[in-house]
Write a structure and sequence with these properties.
3-stranded antiparallel β-sheet
Length: 84
């Protein structure tokens, strides 16, 4: 499922990854390069499988670990109210 941030969430890519600002409460989130890759794939319309594929290709990690990382990040972004 594609991912989209709420209207109150600003994003900026940095030299290290991505920074998210929740304008509702002023809270910043910093995404590392792997989380940035996951978010990029999902925001471009890819699903969680495509995001896991991208992690496996980019970082040569095992498939189960990639799937777990994607699921954990998506759950945290949705639980925090940053993404739908």
């Amino acid at each position: 499922m594609a991912l989209c941030f709420g209207a109150d969430v600003s994003t900026a890519e940095t030299g290290y990854g991505t920074v998210l600002l929740d304008q509702r409460n002023g809270q910043y989130w910093e995404l590392n390069p792997t989380a940035t890759l996951i978010v990029r794939v999902l925001m471009e319309g890819g699903d969680e499988t495509a995001a896991a594929d991208a992690l496996v290709d980019a970082y040569d990690i095992d498939r189960a670990g990639a799937e777990a990382d994607v699921a954990a990040l998506v759950a945290e972004l949705r639980t925090s109210g940053l993404a739908a």
